[in-house]
Design a protein that fits this description.
The chain is α/β, with parallel strands linked by helices. It is built from eleven helices and nine strands. β6 and β7 form a beta hairpin. The N and C termini lie close together (6 Å). Bound molecules: zinc ion (ZN).
Length: 273
């Protein structure tokens, strides 16, 4: 079982994917001419983000923001506000396009553009999460080749592990611990419903407790355009309170968790924790 700092039993990372309009353009480039659709994304940097930064400051939690590189150019003030508040910036593609739908060259170009755009504001970057968690066969090689240290996009463990044959550390995620599938209603998918936080909170808390019991890393993935709505912000507050009041859990940024896991796993490359 992985050892965590200061004798802690487990770790927790709060992550936000600041997709803004890019996620809607990634779903369908024709959305460029649907300003109503795009406005759902605009809410993220414009309204949701400041509300989230306020909650993170209140609970003194530093988070990791995975951002499509294009948003460093479309929403520079939002990205700057995240850096100014002391949070980590990490790469989430350039356009929000699933790597699995790209050629190797296109994916390499996306990564290069994203690192350049985000690096201008954030300085050094160490993390990567693929748009829509839809990784290609080339993603790990390209991300490692670009000098990044960790990814957070696979669903095959509850603990950080080293990708076999690579230096890259994985911080595993899951759809369960993502506000998008739990809350996102879309006009194009009318069968989905808008859920109350009372439906989702027990799921997230039970995952937290289960991962804690197993000595793992709880990675919660949220989107400012979703969790940043007024009725959902209390769920973020409850999870932050739950994490910081759990004295046996280390709350860390992804970079910190990956750095720590890298040292812990140094003796056993390619193994699952
Ligand atoms: Zn995304």
């Amino acid at each position: 079982m992985m050892q965590w700092p200061d004798g802690k039993r487990a770790a927790a990372a709060f992550t936000f994917d600041l997709d803004a309009e890019a996620v809607w353009l990634g779903f369908d480039p024709a959305n460029a001419s649907r300003p109503g659709v795009l406005s759902q994304g605009t809410y993220g940097p414009r309204v949701g983000l400041p509300l989230i930064l306020d909650r993170l400051a209140r609970f003194e939690v530093r988070a990791t923001f995975f951002i499509p590189g294009v948003n460093a150019e479309v929403h520079p003030a939002a990205v700057e506000s995240i850096v100014a508040a002391g949070h980590e910036i990490a790469v989430h593609g350039y356009h929000h396009v699933a790597p699995a739908s790209l050629s190797r060259d296109e994916e390499a170009r996306e990564l290069e553009l994203a690192i350049a755009a985000l690096g201008k504001i954030a300085g050094s970057l160490s993390g990567y999460r693929s748009p829509s968690w839809d990784v290609s066969p080339h993603t790990l090689e390209l991300v490692e080749g670009a000098g990044l240290a960790y990814t957070s996009q696979f669903m095959d463990d509850l603990r950080p592990y080293r990708h076999p044959g690579r230096r890259l550390i994985e911080l595993p995620v899951h759809w369960i611990l993502d506000d998008w599938p739990n809350f996102m209603w879309s006009a194009d998918q009318g069968t989905r419903t808008i859920r109350s936080i009372e439906e989702v909170e027990p799921i997230w808390r039970a995952e937290f407790e289960g991962i804690r019991d197993l000595g793992g890393l709880f990675v919660l993935t949220m989107h400012p355009q979703i969790i940043g709505r007024p009725y959902r912000l209390p769920l973020l507050e409850h999870m932050l309170e739950f994490a910081v009041s759990s004295s046996d859990v280390w709350t860390a940024t992804c970079r910190e968790a990956a750095d720590y896991a890298d040292r812990q796993l140094a003796a056993e490359p390619g193994s699952h924790g």
